[in-house]
Each structure stands twice: as structure tokens, then as C-alpha cells.
Amino acid sequence: MKKFLGLALLLSITATLSALGQQKPTAKSSGLAQSMIKGKAVYQQYCLTCHQADGGGVPNLNPPLIKTAYVLGDQTRLINIILKGMSTGVVIDDEEYTNPMPPLNILSDEQVANVLTYVRNNFQNKASAITASQVKAVRAKNK
Amino acid sequence: MKNKTLLFALSSALCLFLFQSVSAQENNNKNTVNAGLTLPNGFEASKIIESAGKPRHIAVTSKGEVYVKLQRLLNGKGILLLSDDDKDGVFTIKTSFGDYTGTGIKIKDGYLYASSDREVFRYKLDAQEHVIDAEHPEKIVTGLVAGRQHQTKSIVLDNDNHIYVNIGAPSNSCQEQDRGVASPGIPGCPLLDSVGGIWRFKADQLNQSYKEGLRYATGLRNVVGLDWNQQDNSLYVMQHGRDNLNSSWPNLYTEKQSAELPSEALYKLKEGDNAGWPYIYYDHIQKKKILAPEYGGDGKKESDKDFLDPIMGFPGHMAPNGLLFYTGKMFPERYRNGAFIAFHGSWNRSPEPQEGYYVVFVPFKDGKPTGKWEVFADGFSGVDKVMSTREAQHRPCGLAQGPDGALYVTDDTKGTIYKISYR
């Protein structure tokens, strides 16, 4: 019985996925879609270990990225968290997160823009994209 | 075609729904039997209290009452005394005191010792082992370094009037840029002067700090679980091994290697020992001490220095937060003098599944393991697989032994305290 259920589940997922796959991407979403794909790759390499696959962070240590003011609010502050890291703890919803984050200024302007766009439009977030020129401007100001 | 697919998807969704209902029922049973834990035959578990803040370490009195150190204040207090006056197995908060948070708590020779992240206090106990003056503890240790990571202080006492305090390093591997990508280690890691080891102080002397204390052992990144083994009169500690082998050194370590390495290592410490952090780590797969990548290692080069060998290596990142040598009579003979270790559960194994969230047992005799480690109490997480750490419902942290020989385990996520007994 369990085996059959597993098979049924697998088939239904496959059917749903192939149905989704048949949808044609609209021209409007493709720029964002590209950013999301590239941003996800950056997230997986540099962010996921600490902020976790679901963006939920780690209790007491690494802050969550789900619907927080740090992710959705001031964009310059957000860009600077990537460029400069974060050595002070943060309090989000009464929980304190204390682990330090190293600066990731080795990332290109485009990589920073993509990963932030990915985070701002994933993990239940919905916010505007961050552009490479925004990142470039913030980086220039820091020099 | 489309309709057929839809019908099929709907019918399989229905099957899935029915299947999930059955699973939910099974889960409910799991949660009520043995408080949701899986234990060896003959053992049983109950929850003595729930929602008791964020309990870290605990100490049980000879009368069976429980002192709990909290990581966050509960109604303004950081220490709870729990008791079960009507003996129904459910404990209530009898009193609470201490306006500081922390991890460490121990009872020894008529005193209750408790730590904040920078200090250690002690309270004189009466014949009932109740604190006589909760408002005026003696401050025996002060001015300890507490950074933004590994800041908690664990404590244990020997039989010669000493208290041992872990001072964790506020650093992953003493890199120039902490947790940075390919950032090198600082030569002659200067942190080790004041952190990254176990310090020893007098148990009865006021206001001691580094000057009055002794750096008993060094080269330990962070220790949360530690205990004094009465059988060989020695200090044993569980080190939290370093993180980020892959994220800091992607060219040297795969994600899978980084999930498994380095070991969470058990050490027996003598005065003057050096376990090697940040220069080396222990690899339980190669069974070797390996040079850290921050100091010229590549995952294979062995350390050329005479650092201390661990007694046992466990898989990486499982976060050993409690260590207890069992001296009770309640559990079967093979558990006597063996080590219980509470693994808080990992986060640094991502993107691989997380590991830990259980209590293990290691059989011991005369200070030496006589067998492999085994999972003793499992099921704290409440889920089959933890991918993201916050999915775990409960996370084991502190361990203590009751006067009857029962084992107590804290959970600092939901504030549950478990009692594990042998029938």
C-alpha cells in the first residue's frame, strides 16, 4: 500500500511539474527570472550554510531572511550587509541572533544584485529587484 | 488528456491526504508514548515540565528537586527551582531567582554554583538544598571574555575545591576575517591568551579573574558539555568543532566533507594539555589530527605538533551541549560509569540534512571507552529529517542525574525537561 502511494505521489508531482513546465515565460518576468536563477546559485554557495535552505536562519545564531525589515527595508543597508558583513548581533521578533557575518565584497555588483533580488523574492518575500548599478553606487560610496 | 491528468492528480492527492491522516495519528501516538522519545528496551521517559523558558544546564538535588539555568530571563529571573511536591511526576516552579541569564549550574558540597556569560556565582544551600540567600550570592569569578559567539560559560567542580570554567573563542578558526572566504589564520592565534580553553579557579575565593585563575587546558574552540569523571578523578570535555570547511575553503572541501568534518571530539584533560584549535582539527574518518586550512592544511596534511588526541570523535556539527558520567544504580550495569552526551543538533551541515538532536551513550570503564557510541534517546526533533535547524521541535542541551538514578534532559527550544527512567 505504501509503495503504491509513493508511486502515485511521484506520478502526480511529475504531472504537475510537466504541466508547469508547459507554461511559457512572459517577456516581462524573464529579467527577474534570470536574476532569480543566478541569485539562487550565489545563495547556495555563500549564504545557505548559515541562513539555511528555507531562509529561516538558525535560532540564536544566524538571522532569518523571511519577511524581515533587514531584507525588505532600506536597500542601502541591505547591500552593505553583503559588502561589509555584520559584526553586531540583531534582534528580530524578540529573538537575538549573534553570529558574525563576514563581508562578501569578493562578489561582483551583479552577483550581489542577483542574490539580493533572489532573497527579496523568495522565502515568502515579495519586493523590488536590486540592480547592479545600485550595488555599484553603494560600493563606490564606501571607498 | 488534460482532464485525465487532472483526475489522476486529484485522486493521488486524495490518497496522499488519507495517508497523511494515518501518519498524523501515528505521530500523535509517538508524542504521548515516552514523551515522544525513542529509547532502548526497558526505558521510559516523561516530561516533568513544559514551556520552562530556555533551560540550558540543570542540577538535581539529593531530594529530587531540579535547579535550572535559563538562557533567557523568565519573569525576570534566570534560575528556576522545580519541585514535585505531590509526587505526581509533574514539576512546577517552586521559586526563581538570579537576574542574569547563562548556561552553567552545579551543586557541590553544600553550594549551588551558576554562571552568567562573564561571571560565576555561588549560593549557600540549607539542609533541604534550598538557597539560603537568593539575593546575595558570592561572586567567585568575574571579568571573563564573552564575545558574540561561543559566549556561554559551562562549569564543573572537582573534589579538591576547584571550579573549571569553559571560555569559548569568539571565532570560528582564528581567521583574519572570521568565517571569511579563504581568509588565513592569524599566526600564533592571540585569542588563546584569554579564550579557547578551560580555566580553573578556587571554588571558594571571591572575585577571581584571569590573574587568579589557571589556564588548565587550551586549544579548545568551545566546550558546552563537560563533566568530572569520579572513576578516574579527571575532567572530560566535548569540543564543538570548527565550522565552514566548505564555505571558507570551497577548493579544498566538498559540501559533503564539510557536513561530516571535523569531529565533535571528546577529550580527557590534564593540566597543561593543548587540543590544538585553531591549528588542527580531528578527522574521525581518517582517524588523524589534520592541519587546519587556515594554517596551511589541505584536508590531508597531518598536524606535526604534539597536540592532545581525543578519546573519541563524533560526526561534525552535532553540537554536544551536555556530558554526564552515569554513576546511578537505576540503569542496567552496562550504563554504569559510561558517558551520556546530549547533542543539540547541527546547522552547519547544510545543504546536507542536519544531524544530532539526540542523546548518545558511550560505555566506559576506568576512564576508557569499552565500545562504540550509540544513540540512546532519539526523537527530540519530532520530525524524520531536519533540513533547516528550526524544524526541530526540541533540542537536547543539559543532562543531570537524579538521586534515584534517573536521567534528566533539558530542551532549550520549547522549554521541556525530560526524565528518563528504567523500569
Short account of what is shown:
The complex is a heterodimer of chains A (143) and B (423). Chain A is mainly α and 143 residues long.
Shape of chain B: globular
Strand percentage of chain A lies at under 5%
The helical percent of chain A reads 55-70%
Number of helices of chain B: 3
Shape of chain A: globular
- Helix-strand string of chain A: HHHHEEHH
User: Structural class given helices, strands, pairing of chain A?
Assistant: mainly alpha
Beta strands of chain B, count: 29
How would you characterize this protein structure?
- Chain A is mainly alpha-helical.
- Chain A is built from 6 helices and 2 strands.
- In chain A, strands 1-2 form a two-stranded antiparallel ribbon.
- In chain A, strand 1 (90-92) and strand 2 (95-97) form a beta hairpin.
- The termini of chain A are far apart.
- Chain B has 3 helices and 29 strands.
- Residues 1-30 of chain B have low confidence and may be disordered.
- In chain B, strand 28 (407-411) and strand 29 form a beta hairpin.
- Chain B has a 5-stranded mixed beta sheet with strand order 10-11-12-13-17, with no helix packed on it. In chain B, strands 1-29-28-27 form a 4-stranded antiparallel beta sheet, with no helix packed on it.
- With 423 residues, chain B is mainly beta.
- In chain B, 10% of the residues lie in helices and 35% in strands.
List the helices and strands and how they pair.
The complex is a heterodimer of chains A (143) and B (423).
Chain A: H1 2-21, H2 27-51, H3 69-72, H4 75-84, E1 90-92, E2 95-97, H5 109-120, H6 132-142
Antiparallel strand pairs in A: 1-2
Helix pairs in contact in A: 2-5, 4-6, 5-6
Chain B: H1 2-32, E1 43-49, E2 55-60, E3 66-74, E4 77-83, E5 92-97, E6 105-108, E7 111-115, E8 120-124, E9 138-141, E10 155-157, E11 162-167, E12 197-202, E13 214-218, E14 223-229, E15 234-239, H2 245-248, H3 255-260, E16 264-269, E17 273-274, E18 280-283, E19 288-291, E20 312-314, E21 320-325, E22 339-343, E23 358-362, E24 364-365, E25 368-369, E26 374-377, E27 396-401, E28 407-411, E29 417-422
Parallel strand pairs in B: 13-17
Antiparallel strand pairs in B: 1-29, 2-3, 3-4, 4-5, 6-7, 7-8, 8-9, 10-11, 11-12, 12-13, 14-15, 15-16, 16-20, 18-19, 21-22, 22-23, 23-26, 24-25, 27-28, 28-29
